[in-house]
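LAB NOTEBOOK - FOLDING QUEUE
OPERATOR: T.R.
BATCH SIZE: 2
PURPOSE: Compare the predicted structure-token outputs for two unrelated chains run back to back under identical settings.
PRIORITY: normal
REVIEWER: second-year student, initials M.K.

ITEM 1
FIELD SEQUENCE / FIELD STRUCTURE:
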Amino acid sequence: MTTHAIAWSILWPALIAGLIVAASHVPLGVQVLRKGIVFIDLAIAQIAGFGVVAADAFGFESGVMVQGSALAAAILGAVVLTWTEKKFPDVQEAIIGVSFVLAATAALILLSSNPHGAEHMKDILVGQILWVNPSELWLQGAISAIVLIVWIALGERISRVGFYVLFACAVTMSVQLIGIYLVFATLIIPALATREFARNQLFFAYLVAVIGYAMGLAISAWLDWPSGPVIVWTIAIAGIGAYALRPRRI
């Protein structure tokens, strides 16, 4: 098997994983930006990451228990943030930031006695998209499809708590698949770059994500750089390009 064939056998599952995540995260990111709660995705993603760490601390390294722990933590975080948004709307963004810090430091506390804690935290933050198992793509694909179906069916009619819970379900698996930083970049950068597009915003936001993932994986393979951080940067570069080239009237 040639070097190019080996590289492609590693890159194609990673690219598909990124596109599956982008399929559900890009429209949610557009809505998050419109609602003005940009850092909620980062907070819930970190809370889901804490759920993964908590499951590991209790001896569950993989499987249904890890997924359940991450989902339960994310949904609980979503419900709490829904309540705080109603109770303290004027400081909601600050509460979201505090929630992120608390979840992150709680994860560090749980990992402090784990000899592989630093590596585990790195995986949660930057992900291991280059080493995605093709068998994981089916589950992520199913989750993204369900999220998209619910979003298309309800759209703007979805309640606040419904949106937060849907968001929690979307990021639970993706955090484990591609890491918190890449989840945040996929949600926010395409939406931010295309926010002034009067029409077809979603199409161009998807285009930014697709170009970012494709470029990032290619560059990381070529230069042997870490894939997650490189993709974050290439999504940002694609976003800057889209914003700079935006038509004034679309």
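ITEM 2
FIELD SEQUENCE / FIELD STRUCTURE:
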Amino acid sequence: MTALEFVGNEVDSMNIVLTKLVFNFLLIQERIPFKYRSLNGVSWFLCTCTLAYFIFPYILRYMEKSYTKKKAYIAIIFSFVVEILIVCLGNYLGIKEVHNSVLENNIQAWLIYYFPLSRVWDVFIGANIGFLFLKQKNDSISKRTALEPFAILLNVIVLIINTLVTPKHAIDGTSVVLHPNFRWFLPLLFTISSSILVYIFALDKGKISKFLTGKITLYLAKISSYGFLIHYVVLAYLSIIYRMLPKIFGGYERFWWDYGRWLNLSIGFVITLICIELYVRFENRIKRIKLNAK
């Protein structure tokens, strides 16, 4: 699915296409901020996951050696501080954009959002939250589940702020969230609120977490990683279709603002689910073939 993104979307030279294929095949596309590096705008996720899988055993090995809850709290705070420093550096570099044919123009976005070494601090935070979860005491669970409404409210506030600060002209048919210079404090709020949600919901003792552990929500959680990678391609091709519509609809811009967003939310969502189901079935079939071969 990732490899289909450049087909019909734009015409690249063969050198650029081959470069993208090599970078994405090796899952190193976000290690260096080359301008032409990714086949799928969200494939940075795979590059970061690769690094996370590589370093996680070392994190566990370190935690097995006289690790304590105090160290976990210090590690979480330290990781947040590092992320803040990365944001500050990104804001500074964002003012001095690079303009050449090789490097990414928006160095700020690459450093803060896509660069694996910047996102790996989220992995450290998650690992330490997992350690605290394993060390939690049952007698204080009820008090901690009271944070459920607060964490959800914080997430809602962040989404509202994100909507308000994202300029109208920054939204098009392929991406609903681009990143203005003054928006980069928001990932920190997302990280904080998401960390609280992950920990509280893992306890599975609060009313909200119990409500959200139904079959539908668990299914959506299971396929979320597939959906994240596939939806971008689906929306990209829908955008191409919108641009082909006749001018009787008022042109692309008018059609997008009147109908495109709702079509993405409805038809785009359904197509994404269908593609996920087909891919999962294909993946399971390959797994069965491998098992039978053994």
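REVIEWER COMMENT (ITEM 2): Residues 251-293 form the longest helix (43 residues).
FOLLOW-UP: none requested
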